[in-house]
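agent> call fold_tool(seq_1)
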Amino acid sequence: MERRKKMKKMVMLFLSVGLLFASHSSFAAGGPDFQEGLWEITSVSEMPGMPAMPSVKQNQCMTNKDYVPHSKEEKDSSCTVSDLKADGNTATWKLKCKSKEGEMDGNGTITYSKDKLSGNSVINMQIPGMGKMKITNKLTGRRIGSCK
């Protein structure tokens, strides 16, 4: 049971940082072509050998200055984003995280198209007492209205 709790905590941290890369909105001077407003972002994670994880949804007001999804928990994360690049409407990044639950590193890609976004990331985790694990995360998003 303790192993499950530790795994769940690491997965939640991953979900937080899997969306973290976006909080660094300066990666593309021109920014992607998308519609500002309230967006619904869905994240689905998969881990080999683990039961299916439920999708995680959150709403975020996205603007030309803050146009990439990020979680509410990112302030509590100890992650560093590097190699953040944009080519047209596609952004790529790498990240590295350290916490008392373990270490993670990975990379990802996200592409925007007006009122939709899609992307993925791969995270490799090293959890004390549990060994190495890999998480694949798929992101989708859609504009659902105006910001409130």
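agent> call fold_tool(seq_2)
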Amino acid sequence: MEQQEKIIKFLAEFFRRDTKRIQGAVLIGSFARGQGSPASDIDIELLITEDELNVDEFTNDIIQLFNQIEESLVIKHTIWLANQRKLALYHGPQVLLTELYLYTQLSQFDKYFLGSRITDLRKCILVDRQNLIRQHLEYILTLPYDDRDGLIGELIATILFQLESTSSARKRCDAYKFYFLSNITLHELVRLAYVLDGRTDQKDNLDPKKLAASIFNTLGIGEDKKLTKEEFIKGCKRTPNLRELFGGGK
């Protein structure tokens, strides 16, 4: 987890300096909830000035940043998913993943924060030049959230796009991109299966973090390691709350 914390620190400093392109930056996901682990990805939403941001130049600037700072965190590979406004960065020999969401409006932050378990905005707001993000998110966190149909539609759209991208990578014989897009697709399929089955409770053993830990535990593998797809499926079949979905029986 120390490496991910370094990445967050370096990126936060970079965003604070980039006054022309970056108007705000918000850490989301497990690190924003204070639940980050060595296996956790880093997720950051950015409020950008669209006229000032060229994605290729922005990506290259971040690559150069890590080239100059620390060899173990250099960016090995990047993927820009335009339909999701998402830039994926893969760092160092451990292939740590950072996902940056490039938004132009405050309302684009709503989808994640509705129903999130983030309770302390002080820990997740990295940049807020006009103090607009804090006010907006404080309001969003007070709203109720129970949009199951909307979540299902969103997941299906994401899965279809990822499957098309995976197929395209395979046709181009791009094994590296095919591997990562396959992992993303598998993750979204598991999420969809659980939403359709009504298993979205985050208070007991169906909590995603607890489920992930149980997969590693059944395999006897530390949570700081990366699983192959075969190991992941094997672990799911052995985990009580997942085995039915993966053909492991009751």
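agent> summarizing second result for user.
Residues 148-245 form one domain. The first helix runs from residue 2 to 17.
agent> awaiting next instruction.
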